[in-house]
Design brief:
The chain has 109 residues and is of the alpha+beta class. It is built from 2 helices and 2 strands; from the N terminus they run αββα. A two-stranded antiparallel ribbon has the order 1-2. Strand 1 and strand 2 form a beta hairpin. It starts with 16 loop residues before the first helix and ends in a 21-residue tail after the last helix. The model has no long low-confidence stretch (mean pLDDT 84).
């Protein structure tokens, strides 16, 4: 299959990968570029390329979870053990960072 693009008069041109690849995620291509000098002489250059369609990764940039503690106790309520191990932990990506932030109040007993 032959695809033609142009003519172009700019010094630099960018063609979207999807325009070339169509529905294929990747492919090997023979590229022929034909140009013309100011004097009218035709210049032809050929090369090959392996193109891969880049798709941005789908990631959640930030997730927030809350854990409740009993009054005057430094250990979380027992039901949070299962929540932390079965819900929160699997959502932490490999090499991800976890920030733990806590606070207390000024209530006195």
């Amino acid at each position: 299959m032959v695809q033609k693009f142009g003519p172009y008069t700019q010094e630099s041109v960018s063609i979207p990968g999807k325009t070339i690849l169509g529905s294929s995620p990747e492919g090997d291509y023979k590229i022929t570029m034909i140009g013309q000098t100011k004097s009218g002489k035709e210049i032809k250059k050929e090369t090959t390329a392996h193109l891969v369609l880049w798709t941005p990764p789908v990631t959640e940039e930030m997730m927030r979870f809350s854990v409740i503690y009993e009054f005057n106790n430094s250990e979380a309520i027992a039901m949070y053990d299962k929540y932390l191990t079965e819900v929160v932990t699997p959502k932490i990506p490999v090499n991800g960072s976890v920030i733990i932030h806590g606070h207390t109040d000024i209530t006195e007993v």
